[in-house]
Amino acid sequence: MSMILRRIAVWAMEMLAEMILLGGLLSMLVYPGFADKVLGVLMATIAVALVLTLHWYYLSRAIWGLMIRLDGSYWYPSIAASIFVAHMYFAIERSRAELTGEARSMELPFLAGGACIVFACAMGSNRLLRRWRQRRIQDPKAREPVSRE
Fold it and tell me: Tens digit of pLDDT per residue, the chain (149 long)?
């Protein structure tokens, strides 16, 4: 049971780190002078999180995360980055008529940078889960519940 809770905690930390880093990337692309201000990054983080939530990105990541969490492989980070690019490309395409030329020019840097951020966060969470699993296998006492006698 504790491994399930650890997976959920790692997934939540991974998503939070992605949101903050993607918000920072968006604020740097849109307002380069505004990126150093906490409020700018916070507003961009909320905007990115809202768009990704409305396009069911977090649900699809959770489903794929449960299905493909393999030890030591690049499959999960690669698929996570692909899911991000697909969801954001779909969101951008739906609003293409309303975007200015400047906003359209930021599409490719945001998709490329976002894919790198998602890949790095997914790789980090994979490594963290693998370390926890290895520690649990090496320490047999970690499996047994603690008695209070």
Answer: 577 788 888 888 999 999 999 998 988 888 877 656 778 788 888 988 898 888 888 888 888 777 776 555 778 888 889 999 999 998 888 887 787 888 788 889 999 999 999 999 999 988 888 887 777 666 656 555 555 55
Least Cα distance to 12 among 87, 121, 111, 91 occurs for 121
pTM of the model: 0.81
The residue among 83, 138, 110 whose CA lies nearest residue 21 is 110
Neighbour tally for 82: CB within 10 Å: 14
Structural domain that includes position 96: 2-140
* Position 146 in a domain: no
